[in-house]
Structure formats: structure tokens, C-alpha cells
Design goal:
The protein has five helices and 13 strands. It is α+β, with helices and mostly antiparallel strands and about 280 residues long. The chain has a single domain, classed as Pseudouridine synthase, CATH 3.30.2350.10. The strands form two sheets. Strands 1, 2, 3, 4, 5, 6, 7, 10, 11, 12 and 13 form an eleven-stranded mixed sheet that branches. It has a two-stranded antiparallel ribbon with strand order 8-9. The radius of gyration is 20 Å and the shape is globular.
């Protein structure tokens, strides 16, 4: 089996370093498994924050080793992932490919599959939220359901595993609005674990383990310290071959660890075996 390929990014300003797995690459496309806590592109409110595209463009211009090996002269992101969301980020190596893929996303053709750990247990195993979304008029970082002024937004959800007070859900967004999955889950009453912006509570071991004891003068840390959302699968039409290409990224390590604790200490009664492999050591 071929070894995994990586792209190494760094930010001297913040002294951060990222070794990002490549989950798909050919002469036209490059797909990365974006880590959490990293922006896709410049922040509209703070352009100095490190982000994938700014660092990649810097390294291409400087002919950095990781870029030179690939002969990259052009790279553009086709879509975005939130700062805390991990998983597949698709990039185009040519302007022609970018236009082709942008048209697909504009027509809502790509098949997207995410996984989220949510607070609570929905009554239905499968449900759909079809509610228009718009940026909040006052709170600049927030998005809200806005029936009068929002853009069409639709997401299908399926409960994969149920735990006491938590669930793992598969999310299939048909549109690509900012914070769409997070806001739709909040609207339905089951916000994503760790999503402070939209009311998602933390996942704490003390909520799962009945005999949990915290040492004196110690604060308890969450089992996952970010929004528990991962972009797992993306299917697009290849810009050159016109064949369907499905790209997958294994469950992020921190989400996989959180699920291990849920399965060990937080199982609901009569819960079947997992319907999806959420281990973090799958080959890409």
C-alpha cells in the first residue's frame, strides 16, 4: 500500500506548524484533510490570522520544497471549511478546473457527507431541515434562520449512533451556506457538541462516567475541545475526465477519541454496533 503524502505548512508569525495529509491528488485536483483550528482562506475581520490558502500561495511563490515537488504554479480553493471543522478541502490546480468545479458547487451537484456529534437524541432516525439562512444583522460572526431574507438552505440528517444525551449523526448538505449544518442542527434543537457560538454544550467525561472524580483544584477539560464536525466524503465530477470522483477523509483523531469514550461510558440501552467506521487510522 502506498505511503501517505503530506503537505507541510507553517506560520512563523504564530509559530504554528501543520503536517496536512493529502487524501487525493492528480494533475488537476488536490484534496487535503484539513485539521481543526485552521482557516481555509483569509478571515474577513482579521487578515493576519494563518490560513491554508495564504500559506500555500506564499510557498508557491517562494518555490518551497513541498510545492516544488508537485510543480505547482496555481492553486485555488473550490469551497471552504469552518475554522474548527476538520476534513476534506478540495483545491484546483488550474483556472479551468476551478471554473468547472465552481459551477458544480453553484448548481449544488457535489455529494457531501459530514459527521457531527450532537447534544441530545433526536426522536427521528432520519430528518431534514429546509430553512433559509442569512448572516445575523448585529452579531457579525453568526448565521441564523431568516425566512424573509435568507438564502435557500437544505440539509438531510441520519442518526448513526445513539448515546446517553448525545448522538453521532451523518449530515448531507444539499447547499453550501456558511455554518449551514451547525445552524440547521441548532434550529432543530440538537446543536453540535462544543459549538459555543450556537449553544452546543461540551462533552465531559463527568457526564458519562458515573464514578467520575476530579482531583481537587483541577478544572475538567472537554473530551473534544472544538466544534465536533468533520467533512468525511466529497463526490464531484472530474473537470477533465468527467467521471465521478469520490474523496474520503478518515474521522479526525479528536472526534474518534471522543467516540471511543462515548462507546465505553455513554452507551444507550439496546444500541447496535456502529454503522460507520470512525477509527482515525484508516488508510486514505
Amino acid at each position: 500500500m502506498p505511503s501517505r503524502s503530506f503537505i507541510k505548512l507553517s506560520s512563523p508569525a504564530t509559530k504554528e506548524f501543520w503536517k496536512i495529509p493529502v487524501v487525493f491528488e492528480d494533475e488537476t485536483l488536490l484534496a487535503l484533510d484539513k485539521p481543526t483550528q485552521l482557516l481555509t482562506s483569509p478571515d474577513r475581520y482579521n487578515a493576519e490570522r494563518p490560513n491554508v490558502m495564504k500559506i500555500l500561495h506564499r510557498d508557491i511563490a517562494a518555490r518551497a520544497a513541498s510545492m516544488g515537488e508537485r510543480g505547482l504554479a496555481y492553486l485555488a480553493n473550490v469551497h471552504r471549511l469552518d475554522f474548527e471543522t476538520s476534513g476534506i478541502l478540495l483545491l484546483a490546480k488550474t483556472k479551468t478546473a476551478l471554473i468547472h468545479l465552481a459551477n458544480q458547487f453553484g448548481e449544488e451537484r457535489p455529494h457531501k457527507r459530514y459527521f457531527a456529534i450532537i447534544n441530545g437524541n433526536p426522536a427521528l432516525d432520519e430528518f431534514e431541515v429546509d430553512q433559509p439562512l442569512a448572516h445575523h444583522p448585529i452579531r457579525v460572526h453568526e448565521v441564523r434562520v431568516d425566512v424573509d431574507h435568507g438564502k435557500k438552505s437544505r440539509t438531510a440528517f441520519k442518526v448513526v449512533e445513539r448515546f446517553r444525551s448525545y448522538s453521532l449523526v451523518e449530515c448531507r448538505p444539499f447547499t453550501g451556506r456558511t455554518h449551514q449544518i451547525r445552524v440547521h442542527l441548532k434550529h432543530y434543537g440538537y446543536p453540535v457538541v462544543g459549538d459555543k457560538l450556537y449553544g452546543g454544550g461540551p462533552l465531559l467525561l463527568s457526564h458519562l462516567k458515573r464514578d467520575f472524580r476530579l482531583k481537587k483544584d483541577r478544572a475538567e477539560n472537554p473530551l473534544i475541545n472544538r466544534v465536533a464536525l468533520h467533512a468525511s466524503e466529497l463526490t464531484v465530477t472530474h473537470p477533465v475526465t468527467l467521471q465521478e470522483v469520490t474523496i474520503q477523509a478518515p474521522m479526525a483523531h479528536d472526534m474518534a477519541v471522543a467516540l471511543k469514550f462515548l462507546r465505553k461510558f455513554g452507551m444507550a440501552s439496546n444500541q447496535p454496533a456502529p454503522a460507520v467506521d470512525t477509527s482515525d487510522d484508516n488508510p486514505s
